[in-house]
Structure formats: structure tokens, C-alpha cells
Records
---
Amino acid sequence: MNKIYQKTIPDGKTRVKRLLGGFTLVELLVVVLIIGILAAIALPRYNLAVRKAKAAAVLATLNKLIEAGDVYYMANGSYTNDMASLDVSLADTTPYKIQAADEGFRWEANPQNKPGYPILQVFGSYFIAHYGHMVKWRLCIGGTEETAAVCRALGGIQDKTVSYRFYLPINDMSAYGNYLPQ
């Protein structure tokens, strides 16, 4: 047999190595450890990306509802709480449940107690005497670190008076008034 495949051990005996090499247990354990470390780092980032993507899709749906509500308001002189009366098709919003508030002027997407998903609110754009200015808000409400991370990932700016409220970017950020940090 060829000397390349033989190994002499200290007691003088010759052992023949296998022609088909393999991995040692230590090498396999090191590979498994490296994969485990990479998974531990990547999995939370992946989960955040999934929650952000779902929240962004729901936010787009809420924006469609507001636009459809504005069209309904121009045609009928009032807002509606009934999604069926709006000319809009909605995508799947699971785990969010979408509902109208403030007579259709505000729409809210609630994740129905699913952890890691924030509550999203979209306000229309007209003058409300109660607020004293034009309202056109996009809010992300995240009461935990997980949900706050999703709100930040959506571009949310934290309210300086309420720690769990984040204002999402809109064309005119001045609509948020004095609530944004300086």
C-alpha cells in the first residue's frame, strides 16, 4: 500500500487511513457552533424584517382607506365607517384587524395582541377645531421594545411627550407640530 495513506503511531504499529476521508467530531461540532451563532444573530433581524414588511403593507392599506374616505367625503359630504361603501380593494392584513374611528376620519390597524406587531393609526387631512390645526398623522404605537423597533424601522420619530408613540414620515412633517423632538 502507498505510504501516503499509512500513519505510524508511537507504539510502532502501522494504521491504514481510509481512502475516503471524513470529518472528525471536533470539526463537525465547530461547524454546528458557527451555524448556531449565525442563526442566533440572523433570526431576530429576520423577524424584525418580517414584522416591518407586514406593518408597511398594512400602512399602505390604511393610506388607501384614507384616500378612498376622502373621495367618499367629497361625494357625500361626510365620512363613513363602512369599508364596503368605499371604492377600495384590500390585501390580506393578517394578523391586523382594520377598523374605522372618528367617523371614518381615522383608521386603525390593531394586531389583535400578536407580540411584536405595533398598532398603526392613520388620520385624514382636514382642520379639526379640537386639535387646532390641520391633522394628517401617521402613528405607530409600540409599547414594547419589539414593537418600538418596528416603529423605528418604519422611519418613526418618537413623540417627545409619550414614549410609546412614533410619528411616521409624511410629506408635511410640520403637521405633527410641537410633538416632534427638536
---
Amino acid sequence: MAILPPLATPTENQEYVILLHGLCRTSRSMASMEQALSASGYRVLNVDYPSRTAAIEKLSDEAIGPVVADCQKAGALKIHFVTHSLGGILVRSYLSRHAISNLGRVVMLGPPNQGSEVVDQLGAWWVFKKLNGPAGSELGTGKASTPNQLGPAKFCVGVIAGDRSINWINSVLIPGRDDGKVSVRRTKLEGMADHIVIHAAHPFLLRNQTAIQQTIHFLRTGRFERGGGGLRFQPVELFSAARKSSFINRK
């Protein structure tokens, strides 16, 4: 991938990026992304929120609202978002109910934009509810699930999906290519500006160097980089459909 020229310094630029981690993670998981965005000239706010304690709407208001207000008070020209997994659904929830006048672009890594079959299969289990909290139970694939009730994107968003799994048990439950948590197909969102697939598992998307470079490229241009000597994004399936079928037939 071509090396992008540095942006102006944060003082000159006044573009802010709000980072939102995924379910059962903390802001530490976004450290690599935070460092790269800061080095590229953005002012970065890496938000830590208690993802297991409340429903998605409550989490989104409490995690996003105060930070957006802080950015606006500081004179932000643009407020961008970069999210991992559940963080993307929080942004969708917030923007469905609140307008941000200086909203920039949004990049979502591994978002369950149409839910996850893992939640369909395991969401009723006591241990799942204990580990993932109320928000985790909202992420099924049914029409009534929170992601499927939020509607299409009415903002500029790019989605980065992974197609490598290190969790073969979850992958058995997910049709098609997946990252061990969500299928490539279900990361897609109606109205999105762009979508790419990279060879990375769900937990590692947020510190994958290709994902980080593509995130910066999208924030600058509104599109991901393709062709012209750059990286080719060819899906490689670690846990193939044939292997899934074979495993299921042996049970």
C-alpha cells in the first residue's frame, strides 16, 4: 500500500476521531489504532465504556454523547468515528437519534451490522448472558434485533470485514466466510460508502496494519484503497464451508 503523506498537525487540523472498542474489551485494545491516527495528525479520543453493563441505546448515549460535546466545545471542525465490533452498533444507535452537525466519516471494523448467528445459537445460554451482558443479547440476526432495527446508514461509513477465524466452534455456527464472530456478509450495511475484506480474525482487526492503513485512507478520502500497486484483498478462508459441513456431518 502506498505511504500516505502526513496530515497537518492536530493544532492546525482540528479533526477529531472518537474510538469505540467492542464487547468485553477496553480502550487498551484500540491502542495501536490510537497511536497511528495520532501520528497522522488527528486528535484522538479513545473511549472506555462498560460494554457488559447495559443495553445498546443506553451505552451509546453514555459513551458517545459526552465525548461529542467535548469535541464540539474544543472547536472540532470534524468529528470522525473508528469502531470495533459492538462499537459500530453504538454509533449507529446514537446517530439514529442524535444529529452531529460536524460529523465526519465512520470506519467500522468487524461490525455485526446484520447481527451474528453466534448470538442466535448461544444467546439464550446463561453463561453467554453472564459474559456478554444485555448488549450482547441484542446482536442476533432476527428482524427484531437491534442492528436490524436501526435502518440504513445516512452518514459516510466504510466497513472492514475479516475472513480469518481462530474460533472454529463459532465458525461452525456461521454460514460462509467469517472472522470467528460475524460473517463477512453480515458486516455489510445498507447505505455504506465502501466495504473491504482483509485476512484477519475478529480480535485482531483493530491492530492489523492493513486495517489501520485502510482506516486512515478512508477517513481522508471516503473510500478504501484498491489496485494501482496497492494491496490486493483476496479472501482466504481458514475454516472453509466444506470443513464446516464435514464437521457438522460427523456430529
